[in-house]
Design brief:
The protein is mainly α. 66% of the residues lie in helices and 2% in strands.
């Protein structure tokens, strides 16, 4: 796989295009089993990962917050993940006054994800998976074995973090950004295959498409699904509002559904 340097909105530096709201969320998570993967399927899943990465990479602007709590978007998410997952976010949407709330949401982001004070959730894989069995430290060390494993996955995909990125490779936003990158590379490989024709396809491109899909499954199983539920529980405990609690539940649900769908499609 060719080497790529990936860029992103806030600081993840993994996503090669501007973010768009996940308007195709239903198609992103429900692809018919055994179907030939069209590039737009990978692209729509990538858009969802891009959106979720943006949630954790910096405070959201008023326009995106307004989109998230819009009735149509919430209904679409309810159809995907159920009323229980969306209950808190719908409650927030029912009473939100963005002219008053946007500043408090920015502060909420800083308290949870940026400033290591009492409500900080430490959004790094190392902290949750790097704990030593029977060790005295309740949290794992940053930039330890987990970071090495994550970086190996990035290199295997033929990519690297942009030097301008200020986050560590195990930050939740960076890892979600990596999933977006894998989806986009998969879509590009499928498009290249279709352009060449099914009878005259390039074996390298076919291998790339399959390889990117396999990397997605592996990264979800070995990394994101292995630790994000713990981070989600921390967010549920420490967030003051239903906004970030709800987004964490959506993230957790999407990771689980996407993993199940990918595994089913690979049978």
């Amino acid at each position: 796989m060719e080497n790529q340097t990936m860029t992103s909105q806030h600081a993840a530096k993994f996503i090669p295009k501007n973010p768009e709201p996940p308007s195709a969320a239903r198609e992103a998570t429900h692809v018919q089993k055994g179907a030939l993967f069209a590039p737009q399927d990978a692209e729509s899943r990538g858009n969802m990962y891009y959106f979720l990465a943006s949630v954790y990479l910096g405070p959201l602007n008023q326009d995106l917050v307004r989109y998230i709590i819009a009735k149509d978007f919430l209904q679409e998410l309810c159809a995907l993940f159920g009323e229980d997952t969306l209950a808190g976010l719908k409650q927030f949407a029912a009473t939100a006054d963005l002219n008053k709330n946007i500043a408090s949401l920015k502060q909420e982001y800083m308290d949870l994800f940026a400033v290591p004070t009492g409500r900080y959730v430490t959004p790094f894989e190392d902290v949750y998976l790097g704990r030593m069995p029977g060790g005295k430290q309740p949290l794992g060390p940053l930039m330890g074995q987990q970071a090495i494993a994550v970086r190996k996955m990035y290199r295997r995909a033929g990519t690297q973090m942009d030097r301008a990125c200020k986050e560590l490779p195990t930050h939740i936003g960076v890892e979600l950004s990596f999933m977006n990158f894998l989806c986009e590379r998969e879509a590009a490989a499928i498009t290249a295959k279709e352009k060449n024709g099914l009878q005259d396809q390039n074996p390298t491109q076919v291998a790339d498409s399959t390889g990117y899909r396999e990397l997605q499954i592996r990264f979800l199983q070995e990394h994101l699904n292995a630790w994000f539920p713990q981070l989600s529980r921390s967010i549920q405990s420490k967030a003051k509002t239903q906004f970030y609690r709800g987004l964490a539940l959506i993230t957790e649900a999407f990771l689980a559904v996407d993993t199940a769908d990918l595994l089913a499609q690979s049978d």
